[in-house]
Amino acid sequence: MSEDRREGQSKFDRPAAASGMTRPAAPAAPAAPGQPAPGGPASPAPQVVPPASAATPAPVLSALRPAAPTADAESDDDSDYEEDEMPSTFVERLRRLSPATVVLTLGSMASLVFLFIAMTSHTTPVAVLLSAAVVTGLIFGADAVIASVVTWRASQNGETGRAFLGAVIGGFASLICFLAFAGTLVLILVLNS
Question: 108: buried, middle or exposed (CB in 10 Å: 19+, 13-18, 0-12)?
Answer without folding.
Answer: middle
